[in-house]
Amino acid sequence: MINKKDDFKVAKKIIFPGVGAFGPAMERLKQLGFFDLLKDFINSGKPFMGICVGMQFLCEGSEESDGVKGLGLIPASCTRFKADTKAVPHMGWNIAANGSPDSATYINHNKNDTKYYFVHSYGILYNEKSNSNLKEWIYSLTTYKNETFVSSVRKGNVFATQFHPEKSGWAGLKVLKSFLETDVLQGPEFIHFAPLCAFTNRIIACLDVRENDDGDLVVTKGDQYDVREKTETGSIRNMGKPVSLAQQYFNDGADEITFLNITSFRSMPLHDLPMLEVLKKTSEEVFVPLTIGGGIRDLKNPSGDLIPAIDVAREYFRSGADKVSIGSDAVFAAEEFLKSGKVLTGTSSIEQISKVYGNQAVVVSVDPRRVYVSSPIPNHTCIETQFPGPRGEKFCWYQCTVKGGRETRDVDVVQLTQSCEILGCGEILLNCMDKDGTNSGFDLELIKLVKSSVNIPVIASSGAGRVEDFHFAFLEGVEAALAAGIFHRKEVPIFNVKKYLKDLGYSVRFDFD
Ligand code: 1PR
């Protein structure tokens, strides 16, 4: 681990897993005095591997942070994906393809089944004509809908991936192992071709975590957010231990794991965040992206000092989280934003965290519930529903809630998600209080409404009961679908969901390599 400048002298190989936005990452490297030391290390001919921003660092610059210079080794700049026909960031699993059959020294190019985890809005976009000067660098290409980009580079002692091998399951660990164990880095000249898009729809396992009445941290599961047994004791439902369940879902093939600390609306001092330990232990054994939600906001410690949300998030990232999910605080931020006439102040938790860690690191978790009305109302986006309300109302709007659904606010789901996208969130976790725990299928009308309102990825959540439900959600265009109850109760294994989707022709990730 490189902690100080002297560590560069003894390092034999360096892996630089850069995270965050390009500008702040480069600034931080310079502040630490590491920018030039990395340059010297690479020039010395010792093996270097960059990951994500660690790869972009090798470029001349990035559209993400105008005027900030990278190392300039790769003769290219990173540009933003176009959100014309697809969600941005490119967040999920995709292939890294190469036309040379014998070039699989590091990456499994040959089997189009091998998928790696990507999460980025910027990259080295590729087209055959303009990128002829990149020829000697390109090691693999990946296509995301209508754009192809360079997903890894390799030249001399330098190897770098835009995807995250450390989050790409066993396939990714093989990439890291090859880099660590292989000394000869020169390979044959590669044949470049733009591969077909193999972007997968993600299947996410969600673990709602809280203390039970005995003070143990357990995974629980609610019915429309009520997590107590319907018995006389009314104890908290206990579905298992957070770390071991996460391990199980990783082994079962979950593409991502989400932990939600569901009682975090209670005040918590920074040093006592219960999920930090869960994340540390999980990230030692689980090699897919981890999202943590619950209590991501400005906190006060017992002495009354303010701890900004960015510091809270930093603790979680350091403990192994890849994304943080913001619930209640996103609703309050959206209210402020709308009230101010859409002024960006930079002070909301979404803005604080996305500025440093990038949009892709900030998820907004939405807890809406239906409000039925007999005709459309002026201040909220209403839909005509196929499932009329209790008094036959033909319209409804989706009201946002905070504090685990305990309090409703005068913000609808379109206002919330659109505001949060502008504030800098990179993904929407779309729960639905009416559907949660019902096994009756996702609220497809809600999904359609939100999906058509934002350009960022949307995760369908709440209500999954059968493998078919995932297909129906994906037909509405969501990038991912999440379930809890059916996985915890072992009613529908993750494998069955993926097998069903694959048989229907979806691109799906199986990590059997
Ligand atoms: O407000 O930033 O502290 O975040 C709190 C987080 O905790 C929010 O993301 C909120 O959704 C979540 N939360 C709070 N209370 C509950 C509860 O259940 N009492 N869980 C709760 C929300 C919804 C999903 C669930 C899916 C799938 N749970 O996470 O896993 O609905 O369930 P299903 O497949 O069984 O239908 P903050």
From TrEMBL:
Residues 9-169 form the Glutamine amidotransferase domain. One of its GO terms (molecular function) is lyase activity. GO terms for biological process: L-histidine biosynthetic process. Pathway: Amino-acid biosynthesis; L-histidine biosynthesis; L-histidine from 5-phospho-alpha-D-ribose 1-diphosphate: step 5/9. It holds the Pfam family GATase. SUPFAM superfamilies: Class I glutamine amidotransferase-like (SSF52317), Ribulose-phoshate binding barrel (SSF51366). Residues 327-328, 365-367, 436-437, 462-463, 484-485 are annotated as: PRFAR binding. It comes from Clydaea vesicula. IGPS catalyzes the conversion of PRFAR and glutamine to IGP, AICAR and glutamate. The glutaminase domain produces the ammonia necessary for the cyclase domain to produce IGP and AICAR from PRFAR. The ammonia is channeled to the active site of the cyclase domain. Keywords: Amino-acid biosynthesis, Glutamine amidotransferase, Histidine biosynthesis, Hydrolase, Lyase, Multifunctional enzyme. This is Glutamine amidotransferase domain-containing protein. L-glutamine binds at residue 52. InterPro entries: Aldolase_TIM (IPR013785), Class_I_gatase-like (IPR029062), GATASE (IPR017926), His_biosynth (IPR006062), HisF (IPR004651), IGPS_HisA/HisF (IPR050064), IGPS_HisHF (IPR014640), Imidazole-glycPsynth_HisH (IPR010139). It catalyses: 5-[(5-phospho-1-deoxy-D-ribulos-1-ylimino)methylamino]-1-(5-phospho-beta-D-ribosyl)imidazole-4-carboxamide + L-glutamine = D-erythro-1-(imidazol-4-yl)glycerol 3-phosphate + 5-amino-1-(5-phospho-beta-D-ribosyl)imidazole-4-carboxamide + L-glutamate + H(+); L-glutamine + H2O = L-glutamate + NH4(+). Belongs to the HisA/HisF family. The active site is at residues 52, 164, 166, 208, 367. The keyword Hydrolase applies. Substrate binds at residues 295, 431.
